[in-house]
Protein backbone atom coordinates (compact mmCIF):
# COMPACT_ATOMS: atom_id res chain seq x y z
CA UNK A 1 0.00 0.00 0.00
CA UNK A 2 1.21 3.49 -0.81
CA UNK A 3 -0.54 5.85 1.52
CA UNK A 4 1.27 9.07 0.69
CA UNK A 5 -0.16 9.37 -2.83
CA UNK A 6 -2.94 11.79 -1.88
CA UNK A 7 -1.07 13.96 0.59
CA UNK A 8 -1.06 17.71 0.04
CA UNK A 9 1.76 20.16 0.73
CA UNK A 10 -0.43 22.09 3.16
CA UNK A 11 -0.64 18.95 5.32
CA UNK A 12 3.13 18.56 5.57
CA UNK A 13 3.31 19.11 9.33
CA UNK A 14 0.57 16.66 10.27
CA UNK A 15 1.79 14.24 7.60
CA UNK A 16 5.28 14.13 9.14
CA UNK A 17 3.69 13.57 12.56
CA UNK A 18 1.50 10.76 11.29
CA UNK A 19 4.04 8.94 9.12
CA UNK A 20 5.69 6.74 11.77
CA UNK A 21 2.39 5.69 13.16
CA UNK A 22 0.87 5.02 9.74
CA UNK A 23 3.94 2.99 8.81
CA UNK A 24 3.48 0.90 11.98
CA UNK A 25 -0.15 0.37 10.98
CA UNK A 26 0.81 -0.60 7.40
CA UNK A 27 3.40 -3.12 8.67
CA UNK A 28 0.96 -4.64 11.14
CA UNK A 29 -1.80 -4.78 8.51
CA UNK A 30 0.58 -6.64 6.19
CA UNK A 31 1.40 -9.16 8.95
CA UNK A 32 -2.23 -9.85 9.85
CA UNK A 33 -3.21 -10.15 6.16
CA UNK A 34 -0.54 -12.78 5.61
CA UNK A 35 -1.83 -15.13 8.31
CA UNK A 36 -4.58 -17.73 8.38
CA UNK A 37 -5.46 -19.06 11.81
CA UNK A 38 -7.80 -21.96 12.60
CA UNK A 39 -10.71 -19.46 12.60
CA UNK A 40 -9.97 -18.37 9.02
CA UNK A 41 -8.37 -15.20 7.73
CA UNK A 42 -8.14 -11.86 9.54
CA UNK A 43 -11.41 -10.45 8.20
CA UNK A 44 -13.38 -13.65 8.88
CA UNK A 45 -12.01 -13.69 12.43
CA UNK A 46 -12.82 -10.00 12.90
CA UNK A 47 -16.46 -10.41 11.87
CA UNK A 48 -16.85 -13.48 14.11
CA UNK A 49 -15.44 -11.50 17.02
CA UNK A 50 -17.58 -8.44 16.25
CA UNK A 51 -20.85 -10.33 15.71
CA UNK A 52 -20.28 -12.23 18.98
CA UNK A 53 -19.51 -9.02 20.89
CA UNK A 54 -23.19 -8.12 21.30
CA UNK A 55 -26.65 -9.38 20.30
CA UNK A 56 -27.31 -5.89 18.88
CA UNK A 57 -24.43 -6.32 16.44
CA UNK A 58 -25.57 -9.85 15.55
CA UNK A 59 -29.05 -8.48 14.85
CA UNK A 60 -27.70 -5.73 12.57
CA UNK A 61 -26.03 -8.39 10.40
CA UNK A 62 -28.84 -10.95 10.50
CA UNK A 63 -29.63 -10.58 6.76
CA UNK A 64 -26.12 -9.76 5.55
CA UNK A 65 -24.05 -11.76 3.09
CA UNK A 66 -20.91 -11.88 5.25
CA UNK A 67 -18.59 -12.88 2.38
CA UNK A 68 -19.56 -9.70 0.53
CA UNK A 69 -19.37 -7.70 3.77
CA UNK A 70 -15.82 -8.91 4.42
CA UNK A 71 -14.73 -7.90 0.90
CA UNK A 72 -16.34 -4.46 1.23
CA UNK A 73 -14.59 -3.85 4.56
CA UNK A 74 -11.24 -4.81 3.05
CA UNK A 75 -11.64 -2.10 0.41
CA UNK A 76 -13.06 0.51 2.76
CA UNK A 77 -10.29 0.13 5.36
CA UNK A 78 -7.86 1.64 2.85
CA UNK A 79 -10.16 4.62 2.38
CA UNK A 80 -10.47 5.04 6.16
CA UNK A 81 -6.69 5.22 6.45
CA UNK A 82 -6.36 7.70 3.55
CA UNK A 83 -8.78 9.85 5.53
CA UNK A 84 -6.50 9.73 8.60
CA UNK A 85 -3.69 11.07 6.41
CA UNK A 86 -5.32 13.87 4.45
CA UNK A 87 -8.81 14.32 6.00
CA UNK A 88 -10.22 14.64 2.50
CA UNK A 89 -13.91 13.82 2.40
CA UNK A 90 -14.16 11.45 -0.55
CA UNK A 91 -17.29 10.07 -2.19
CA UNK A 92 -16.45 6.65 -0.78
CA UNK A 93 -16.18 7.70 2.86
CA UNK A 94 -19.35 9.81 2.54
CA UNK A 95 -21.16 6.85 0.96
CA UNK A 96 -20.05 4.40 3.69
CA UNK A 97 -21.05 6.92 6.41
CA UNK A 98 -24.43 7.23 4.68
CA UNK A 99 -24.98 3.45 4.82
CA UNK A 100 -24.46 3.58 8.63
CA UNK A 101 -26.60 6.64 9.29
CA UNK A 102 -29.73 6.75 11.43
CA UNK A 103 -32.04 6.62 8.43
CA UNK A 104 -30.29 3.58 6.87
CA UNK A 105 -28.67 0.83 8.99
CA UNK A 106 -28.88 3.04 12.13
CA UNK A 107 -25.52 2.42 13.80
CA UNK A 108 -25.32 4.33 17.11
CA UNK A 109 -22.03 5.68 18.47
CA UNK A 110 -21.43 2.99 21.08
CA UNK A 111 -21.32 0.24 18.44
CA UNK A 112 -18.21 1.89 16.96
CA UNK A 113 -16.43 1.25 20.27
CA UNK A 114 -17.32 -2.44 19.97
CA UNK A 115 -16.20 -2.39 16.33
CA UNK A 116 -12.78 -0.95 17.20
CA UNK A 117 -12.26 -3.15 20.27
CA UNK A 118 -13.21 -6.24 18.22
CA UNK A 119 -10.81 -5.19 15.50
CA UNK A 120 -7.96 -4.62 17.97
CA UNK A 121 -8.62 -7.94 19.72
CA UNK A 122 -8.37 -9.63 16.30
CA UNK A 123 -5.17 -7.76 15.44
CA UNK A 124 -3.72 -8.89 18.80
CA UNK A 125 -4.40 -12.52 17.84
CA UNK A 126 -3.06 -12.26 14.29
CA UNK A 127 -0.06 -9.96 14.73
CA UNK A 128 2.79 -11.64 16.57
CA UNK A 129 4.47 -8.23 16.97
CA UNK A 130 1.41 -6.65 18.56
CA UNK A 131 2.27 -4.21 21.35
CA UNK A 132 1.08 -0.86 22.74
CA UNK A 133 2.62 1.08 19.83
CA UNK A 134 0.96 -1.14 17.23
CA UNK A 135 -2.34 -0.76 19.04
CA UNK A 136 -1.93 3.04 19.09
CA UNK A 137 -1.11 2.98 15.35
CA UNK A 138 -4.37 1.16 14.53
CA UNK A 139 -6.31 3.60 16.72
CA UNK A 140 -4.66 6.54 14.97
CA UNK A 141 -5.22 5.09 11.49
CA UNK A 142 -8.94 4.47 12.05
CA UNK A 143 -9.94 7.06 14.67
CA UNK A 144 -10.58 9.98 12.28
CA UNK A 145 -12.83 7.90 10.00
CA UNK A 146 -14.77 6.55 12.98
CA UNK A 147 -15.24 10.13 14.26
CA UNK A 148 -16.38 11.16 10.76
CA UNK A 149 -18.93 8.32 10.59
CA UNK A 150 -20.28 9.20 14.03
CA UNK A 151 -20.64 12.87 13.02
CA UNK A 152 -22.71 11.80 10.01
CA UNK A 153 -25.06 9.52 11.95
CA UNK A 154 -27.83 12.14 12.04
CA UNK A 155 -26.97 13.88 8.78
CA UNK A 156 -27.80 11.39 6.03
C1 LIG B 1 -15.25 2.55 10.83
C2 LIG B 1 -16.02 1.48 11.06
C3 LIG B 1 -16.77 0.77 9.97
C4 LIG B 1 -16.42 0.56 8.67
C5 LIG B 1 -15.14 0.97 7.97
C6 LIG B 1 -17.51 -0.15 8.04
C7 LIG B 1 -17.55 -0.54 6.72
C8 LIG B 1 -18.68 -0.99 6.08
C9 LIG B 1 -18.82 -1.16 4.65
C10 LIG B 1 -17.73 -0.89 3.62
C11 LIG B 1 -20.07 -1.58 4.42
C12 LIG B 1 -20.69 -1.92 3.05
C13 LIG B 1 -21.33 -0.66 2.51
C14 LIG B 1 -22.05 -0.90 1.20
O1 LIG B 1 -22.96 -1.76 1.16
O2 LIG B 1 -21.70 -0.27 0.23
C15 LIG B 1 -20.76 -1.69 5.68
C16 LIG B 1 -22.05 -2.07 5.84
C17 LIG B 1 -22.63 -2.30 7.06
N1 LIG B 1 -22.08 -2.09 8.29
FE1 LIG B 1 -20.30 -1.23 8.65
N2 LIG B 1 -18.48 -0.37 8.98
C18 LIG B 1 -18.06 0.16 10.17
C19 LIG B 1 -18.75 0.14 11.35
C20 LIG B 1 -19.91 -0.57 11.57
C21 LIG B 1 -20.51 -0.76 12.86
C22 LIG B 1 -19.99 -0.21 14.19
C23 LIG B 1 -21.62 -1.51 12.68
C24 LIG B 1 -22.53 -1.99 13.79
C25 LIG B 1 -23.18 -3.13 13.77
C26 LIG B 1 -21.74 -1.76 11.25
C27 LIG B 1 -22.76 -2.43 10.61
C28 LIG B 1 -22.96 -2.47 9.25
C29 LIG B 1 -24.19 -2.97 8.62
C30 LIG B 1 -25.43 -3.50 9.33
C31 LIG B 1 -23.98 -2.85 7.23
C32 LIG B 1 -24.97 -3.23 6.11
C33 LIG B 1 -24.86 -4.71 5.86
C34 LIG B 1 -25.81 -5.17 4.78
O3 LIG B 1 -25.73 -4.68 3.65
O4 LIG B 1 -26.63 -6.06 5.09
N3 LIG B 1 -20.67 -1.18 10.62
N4 LIG B 1 -19.89 -1.34 6.68
Written overview of the protein:
- The protein is mainly alpha-helical and 156 residues long.
- It has a single domain, classed as Globins (Globin-like), CATH 1.10.490.10.
- It contains seven helices and two strands; from the N terminus they run H-E-E-H-H-H-H-H-H.
- Strands 1-2 form a two-stranded antiparallel ribbon.
- A hairpin with a 2-residue loop joins strand 1 (36-37) and strand 2 (40-41).
- Helix 1 runs antiparallel to helix 4, helix 2 (42-52) packs across helix 6 and helix 4 (66-86) packs across helix 7 (132-151).
- The longest helix has 22 residues, at 12-33.
- The radius of gyration is 15 Å and the shape is globular.
- Residues 7-13 have low confidence and may be disordered.
- Protoporphyrin IX containing FE is lined by residues 57, 60-61, 63-64, 69, 72-73, 76, 80, 96, 99-100, 105, 107, 111-112, 115, 145-146, 149.
